[in-house]
Predict the structure.
Amino acid sequence: MRHLMNPLDFSTEELDDLFRLADDILLHEERYAHRCDGKILATCFYEPSTRTRLSFESAMLKLGGQVLGFASADSSSAAKGESVSDTIRIISCYADICAIRHPKEGAALVAAQKSRIPVINAGDGGHQHPTQTLTDLMTIHALKGQFSDMTIGLCGDLKFGRTVHSLIEALKRYANVHFIFISPEELRIPGYIREDVLERGHIPFEEVRRLEDVMPKLDILYMTRVQRERFFNEEDYVRLKDYYILNREKMALAKQDMMVLHPLPRVNEISVEVDTDPRAKYFEQVQYGVYVRMALILTLLELI
Amino acid sequence: MLNVGKIEEGFVLDHIQAGMSLQLYHDMKLDQLEDITVAIIKNARSNKMRKKDILKVECDIDMLNLDILGFIDHNITVNVIKDGEIVEKKALKLPEKITNVIKCKNPRCITSIEQELPHIFVLTDPEKEIYRCKYCEEQYTGRGLK
C-alpha cells in the first residue's frame, strides 16, 4: 500500500506514468467513469478548503466512486479531542482511500503510519501540498510537453508559499531548468532552499525585484498570492500584498508561448484583464488538477 | 588525584566535555536502569582537553544504546570493557534517527498536539550534521539537549 505525503514520493518515471494516465483520462473520460464503482473516498478536512476538497470529490465522483467526510475540525471528532491516529483508524473502516488536510505539519504522515488505506496529504499546514504540485506539473506537461530546458519565474511570496518550495524541488530533477525568483526582500526564497536545494544541486537561479526586467526571458511565470494568514503584522501584509500585479503591460513584454500559472485563489496579484490572454492558464490548471487527482486515486487504489 | 576502581564489564566513556557528564547520565537514561553501577568523574585532568568528565558504567555491554552518544558529542571516546580489559574502542557516528531525545520546537508541528507521538529526528545532512523532525522537517538548531 502506498501513500502520497510529499511530491518527491514519486520518481520522475512514476510521475511520467501518472501524467500519461491523466492524459488518457482526459481524452477518454467515459472509459474511466466506472473504475471506482463501489469505492469510497474520505475527505478529512480539518481546515477549510474549497478548491482542493471539491477537486478530490469531483475526481472520485467522475470515477464512479462515492465520497464522505468532513469540511472542518469543528464538525469532526477532533473537536472532542480525538487524535489524528485514532481518527484515521476509524476512517479506515469506512472508506477505501483518504485525502486529509490538517493545519498541523506532519499530520498526514501520522495518519499514514496508522492507516489501513492509502492516505493522500491534501495539505499539512505550511509544510507540503503534493497534489498542488502534481497539478502544476500536470499543467506544464499537458501544455508544454516537457519539463526540461525551461526558464521558470516564480513571483510573489516565495518565503511562505509552500507550493513554490514543492514545485522547485520537483522541477530541479529535470535537466536544464533555470529559476528566476521575483520577490520583495522580505519574501525572498528561504535560505535552505537556496543553499541545500539549488546551490548544492548546481541548479542555476537568479533573484530579482522587478518582474518587468525578466518577463522576456520566461517560459513559465508562476504567480503566488501574498497570504494574510502568514503575517503576524497587518502593516507588513498591507505593504507587501500589492507589490506585484501582473497586468496587460507586463504581459506585453513576455514571449508569445509563455504561460502564466497560479495555485489560486487569486486576490489581486493578477489583473482580471489578463484572464482573456491566451497565455493565462490558471483556470485550465484547475481542470488539470481534477484529472491528475483521478489518475492518483486510480494509482493508489491499484485500479490501473 | 581521585581513583575509581576498575570495572569488570561495561563502558568507560572518556573525553566528555567537562560539566556534561550528569546531563549525559540522564540523556542515556542511566537513571532508569536498575542494577548497574555508575561512577561519574567530573573535572578530571586531561592533556588534550585540560579538564574532562568520565563516566564508568558497569553493566552488560548489550544494555546501552550508544547511538545517542554520537548525537550528543561524537568526540567522546567509548571504551568497551570485558573481563577488566579494554576489548574495543568504539568510534561514534551520528545516528540516522533519534527518538524522544530532543523535542520538536515548531508550534505548528503535529507533535505539539498528537497524544504520545514520539519525537523523531532524522539525519538529513551528515556533512552539516543536520537533523530534521520526521513530521514537519523543522531543522534542529541547538546542540545540547532539551
